[in-house]
Design a protein that fits this description.
By secondary structure, this protein is mainly β. It is 11% helix and 31% strand. The longest helix is centred in the first third of the chain and has 16 residues, at 2-17.
Length: 151
Amino acid sequence: MRLATRLSVPALIVLTLFPSVLNATECRLKPRKSIKIDGLLCGTVVSIDAYERMDGAEVVLLDSADVLVSSTRADSYAHFEFPSVPKGKYRIFVPGFSLYMSEVELTTSEYTMCKRPVAVYAGLSYCSGGFVSRKWDYGVFPDGPPPPNVK
């Protein structure tokens, strides 16, 4: 009985001082660089968890101080486009979803057309790894872009 008591006291101290020991499923995601874009900011928004296009999803653009700059809705193919905004650093946000890396940098605001769409991968949780990319990520979706949602 004394041995159990002597072993449980140190264990209690460790768990009290370091509560992350309890969370063995803690995720650690690799940092990504911000995406540089010249032209209008546009792209496709997909759910990284459900493997489907998010048609009708709200897509929000925040400035570096997290102040709302613009908001738009994805169309029936999950494509979205923001109006022209000044060059600078922004963050894309999809309400109700997590994007651990969502920074974009607009290098010019002179264009009136979308030159290169981005892919916005929205996750249900931080550990889903939601992010913004300049290209389709075949590591996440090895079969290629998901087809439009069937309704």
